[in-house]
Amino acid sequence: QLWAVPGGLPRGPGSGPGFGTGRPRTENVGRGLLMALIAVIGGCVLAAVVYHLGYVASIVALVMGAAGIFLYAKGAGAPPRKGAVGLVVLLMAGILLAWTCSVGTELYFYYVDQTGTSNGALAFAVRGALSLDLFKATLKDFLIFVGFGTLGIVGFARPGLMPPAKGTGGRGADEGGGGRGKTGRRGRGER
């Protein structure tokens, strides 16, 4: 099947309408942040479950950061550029919230186990999760958790946020650019 093109020239089957127009994708920041919020909520729940099983949920924080960036790009229709700062703030707040949910959930279950009732358990859990003494006691685990979360965010956001290296034709040295320009020739003073 051939399509008609202005000017009367036909196009082949691999070049349908709109092919090659190269329209830039617009970034819908609000929708992207809403999609990233799904990763934050899922990360909070998963971190609480893993922590209740007796493990520090550091890998959950790492995955939550990566999933948030992935879901942002799906929702926004483009990698994070305009919404990058908002996304990083949302994900870091989500990591802190996930830690608080993990500790709070564990305190809630501890209270119910010790007293046999859930009356007052929520207040106990919130008070305990925000306690400075408990924070000091779990500081090492907290730092590991936040560290992995930060690695997830930075590790997955950095490639999308960094502009291509100048003089490599959009490719870095590790992608075959070798520091050469678009012509592939060496620049002045290079051997």
Descriptive overview:
The protein is mostly helical. The model is unreliable at 171-175 (pLDDT under 50). It has 6 helices and 2 strands; from the N terminus they run E-E-H-H-H-H-H-H. Helix 2 packs across helix 3 and helix 3 (84-115) packs across helix 4 (121-129). A two-stranded antiparallel sheet has the order 1-2.
Structural class: mainly alpha
Q: How is the biggest beta sheet arranged?
A: 2 strands, antiparallel
Count every beta strand, where a strand is a DSSP E run of 2 or more residues.
Answer: 2
End-to-end separation in angstroms reads: 52 Å
Average of per-residue pLDDT values: 78
**Residue share in β-strands:** under 5%
Rg (C-alpha, Å): 25 Å
Structure characteristics:
191 residues, mainly alpha, two-stranded antiparallel sheet, 6 helices, 2% strand, elongated
